[in-house]
Amino acid sequence: MPLRLLLVAAFQSVALAQLLAPWVPPQNPQTPAKIALGKLLFWDEQLSSDDSVACGTCHLPEFGGSDGRVDAGLHPGADGVFATADDVRGSAGVVRQANNGEFKPVPAFGLRRQATGRTSPSMMGAAYHEDLFWDGRASQQFNDPETGLLLIPFGASLESQAVGPILNPVEMGVEGRTWQDVRSKLQAVTPLRLASNVPNDMQAALQQNPTYALLFTAAFGDPAITAARIGMALASYQRTLVPDDTPWDRYIGGQASAMTASEKAGWLAFQNQGRCVACHWAPLFSDDLYHNLGLRPALEDIGRGAFSPIPDDYAAFKTPTLRNAGLRPRLFHNGQSPALGDPAQWSDAASTLNVYWNGGGVDPSNLDPFLVPLGQLGVTLGEVALIQDFVRTALTDQRAALRLPPFDHPDLRSAVTSPRVFGPALAGTHAPFFVDTVPTFPGNAEYKLGLAGGDGATAALLTYGFTSLEPNATVLSLPWHLNVHGWLSFSLVGQPGQIGHATWRVPLPNDPTLAPIPFYFQLFALDAQAPGGIASSRGLELFVR
Q1: CA-to-CA distance for 178 and 457, rounded, in angstroms?
Q2: Other CB atoms within 10 A of residue 262 CB
Q3: 32-244+407-413 sits in which CATH class?
Q4: How many Cα atoms are found within 13 Å in the side-chain-facing hemisphere of 233?
Q5: How far apart are CA 111 and CA 91, in angstroms?
Q6: Would the pTM count as exceeding 0.90?
Q7: Contacts of 415 (CB under 8 A, 6+ apart)
Q8: Helix, strand or coil for residue 207?
Q9: Residue 308 to residue 318: CA distance in whole angstroms
Q10: How is 141-194 classified by DSSP, letter by letter?
Q11: 227-238 and 179-188 are packed helices; what angle lies between their axes, rounded to 10 degrees?
């Protein structure tokens, strides 16, 4: 038997009923105050530059620690073109913004939300991985992001990972965002101001320490807000997210009835015929190593190969834990596979079922040698179904699925409140539209609305009112969506052939009496390709609340 399989067998023989407590670096000990601060930061959309994205936006327990916004996170892949074979199901971030906050078009996404080039990995059980991200670039050494000094020499991949997205102009930041920008913002905001249905423990923490200065004092002894402390608090919270209450855990712990007969058969096939344990070692159900499955041509994304000289690491990606994989809407690092239990597992060539059945994806050039077609191992399609059902049900922690502690969390504003668009647009070269991702909460001095339309540099008219026209009226062959109370003129900027754009900054008063009042907008832009030379947007409804 090969050495690796001997090691697997040895690990399986001592499989634990539950995961051991994760490693905690002595330089960042767990404390209740630090965990509370980390949980608040993780679920606060105000950690982003424009209040539209929290860490938790892309890492929801009920979706297996990944992102449930599958359609919103489409990335065009290496070719930069949507609707081609290399498209990636990533996570939606922010609309691109220059350092001064102005909305800014970028290739592929234009003035729409950008998306990450890989699927969000699960944050549940992340504390057990040696390095983090699909390519392992978040290493165990944690250097102070502001000074470069080594703070934690070992076991700090969570700290290293946590500070990455906050300054990233795709995920949470504007171009050139600094830690001083983050610090100034957290000093000024009310923690968790935008969330609703806040869990009791978070409410209690805020009642005791209602500002971030007080929360940092409780966690670290003084009110200084630093990048290192933000990373340490976020890591401390994530170390509590241990998904160890599954049917499999209870079954291994001696509760024979914890798994169904079908799940037991799937577990046996998982260990034996399917050889799944070669890479998915219990109890984490990951070997924490990197493997090339040939999902796409290697040049599209070389994965671990960007950081490792080992040939086998070229286009290889970390083995994800299978715990709570049954909750994830898309699978693999590029999200190419439909969910477990989806009928498309059988028909889609890019599914996990078919990739493993066929012994890899479309690029066989550097396949992991342990990736053998399941049919050659004597596995039947019935056994494959049992294995998938075992992973989908027996490895799911229902506390995550039901948002129960430690996986409880507030509702994010972006998930429950969004502007409404209605009625048709009239397109010319481009159909005008609004960039309406910044939240309209009372007192938002940084509120802004992006205006996009026409062809390059052109003129635009923004109309506004307090009642809508539904269905729309037609005036001068243009659709009208509101009773116009007034208008503002704008000069849109842009290159010929590209959509013109402008950013309208409008500080919102901190006046709760505005809450029931609807505000309606429609944008008209000069466009030689539109009927009559004018293109128009759909209607937009906003509430200041």
Answers
A1: 31
A2: 14
A3: mainly alpha
A4: 24
A5: 16
A6: yes
A7: 57
A8: helix
A9: 13
A10: -EE-TTT--EEESSS-HHHHHHTHHHH-TTTT--TT--HHHHHHHHHHSPTTTT
A11: 70
Which of 352, 450, 451 has its CA nearest to residue 392?
352
Q: Where are the domains of the chain?
A: 32-244+407-413, 246-396, 418-543
Residue 156's pLDDT is what? 98
CA distances (Å), origin 283, targets 14, 26, 243, 340, 395: 9, 24, 11, 20, 10
* Token output for 400: 């995550």
For the chain, the helix, strand and coil percentages under 3-state DSSP, each to the nearest 5: 30, 20, 50
Q: How far apart are CA 125 and CA 198, in angstroms?
A: 23
Q: What angle do CA 365, 367, 371 make, to 5 degrees?
A: 145
Six token digits for residue 458: 């052109």
Task: Give kind and range of the element (H or E) at residue 228.
Answer: helix 227-238
Beta strands in 483-517 (DSSP E): 486-492, 500-505
Question: What topology is assigned to 418-543 in CATH?
Answer: S-adenosyl-L-methionine-dependent methyltransferases (2.20.130)
Given this model, what pLDDT does residue 162 score?
A: 98
pLDDT at 17: 54
CB 488 within 8 A of CB 504: yes
Spatial contact of 493 and 502, defined as CB atoms under 8 Å apart: yes
Calculate ∠ Cα 408-400-249, nearest 5°: 130
Q: Are 395 and 15 in contact (CB under 8 A)?
A: no
The residue type of 54 is: A
**Do residues 490 and 456 touch, judged by C-beta distance below 8 A?**
no
Q: Do domains 32-244+407-413 and 246-396 have the same CATH topology?
A: yes
Residue spans of the chain under pLDDT 50: 1-14, 16
- Which residues make beta-bridge pairs with 132? 138
How many angstroms separate the CA atoms of 376 and 81, rounded? 37
Fold of 246-396: Cytochrome Bc1 Complex; Chain D, domain 2 (1.10.760)
The one-letter amino acid at 275: R
